[in-house]
Design brief:
Length: about 325
């Protein structure tokens, strides 16, 4: 676990010209009880963040019934984003939210100082497919009051070749109403037929293209399903060559140059903050108010490693 620094050659490239890095996913269990494995592309050994996006999990498609059952667990210092391609999930949390989500809708939970939540796919869901993303809150906002928002009002544009929906920030002439705390972009691009399309990019942003399904070449580079192509700042546009029904998630943002410590479900800046957050969860502190759900359990925090946690980005 010590070999996390990028190679010197890589840093030299990063400092000089626009470049790309293909991030292949690793398979992880969502929780011991969730029953599905997920493909994680962020954080990655080579790339820790894309803007403030710090965590990308892609799960499904699965044909198991009751595919997702994630008992109550805490978060701090981040926003969570739930975006589905198929299926339906119920979200409950410690600020009193009870919300069903379907494809085309956004759940965004701002953990701030502290929140706990659970997720349960509906009984009728036999084809769960979606992504779970985290956004690191910048230092000045990371202890804000927790909140939850659901959006079923996100902008969509249709062209002959593509259908685009933006869930955070602005892209391709569309702007989402979503509240976030640093310059950021999140969008879904669906190809309605095989086509080549060029899109303008904000050159102050770094970007990531996750191929959810289909076949895609991005700036001429083939990207396997489940992998994420990282593009550094300095790109003014991107060329996509995709087969019919290819689906991509585009993430972008201004580089977040803050030393984050990500441990379990917490984001902090110091080891001692993580210790305190963990103890608050284990001791049912007011920070993570209890709430009722059908699952009726909480996920215990893992043991802290026997070393001092340090920022990795
Ligand atoms: Mn969570």
């Amino acid at each position: 676990m010590s070999n996390l620094a990028a190679s010197p050659e890589f840093e030299a490239v990063q400092a000089s010209v626009a470049h790309s890095v293909l991030l292949n996913p690793r398979l992880v269990e969502l929780t011991p009880r969730s029953g599905i494995s997920i493909k994680r592309t962020l954080p990655h050994r080579e790339i820790r963040l894309i803007g403030a996006w710090c965590f990308v999990d892609h799960y499904g498609p699965t044909n198991q019934s009751g595919a997702m059952k994630v008992a109550a667990h805490p978060h701090t210092g981040l926003q969570t984003v739930t975006w589905l391609f198929s299926g339906e999930v119920e979200h409950r949390d410690s600020v009193g939210s009870v919300q069903q989500i379907k494809p085309g809708e956004l759940n965004i939970m701002t953990a701030g100082f502290g929140i706990s939540h659970s997720e349960l796919s509906s009984n009728s869901t036999d084809d769960l497919h979606g992504i779970q993303l985290w956004i690191a809150l910048p230092d000045q906002d990371r202890f804000i009051k927790p909140s939850f928002n659901h959006h079923d009002d996100l902008p969509i544009s249709q062209s002959e070749n593509t259908r685009i929906q933006v869930f955070i920030g602005s892209f391709s002439g569309l702007t989402a109403p979503t509240k976030n705390y640093s310059p950021l972009l999140g969008a879904e691009i669906l190809f309605k037929k095989q086509a080549e399309e060029s899109f303008d990019l904000n050159n102050k942003f770094e970007h990531g293209f996750l191929l959810v399904e289909g076949q895609a070449k991005i700036n001429g580079q083939e990207v396997p399903v489940g992998s994420l192509l990282y593009l550094s700042t300095g790109n003014n546009h991107v060329e996509l060559e995709c087969t019919k029904y290819s689906r991509l998630i585009l993430l972008g943002g201004e580089p977040l140059l803050e030393p984050l410590i990500m441990w379990w479900n917490f984001i902090a800046r110091t080891h001692d903050e993580i210790v305190e957050m963990r103890e608050d969860w284990e001791n049912d502190a007011v920070r993570f108010t209890a709430f009722w759900d059908q699952i009726g359990e909480k996920i215990p925090a893992p043991q802290l490693p026997n070393l001092k946690l340090r920022p990795r980005n």
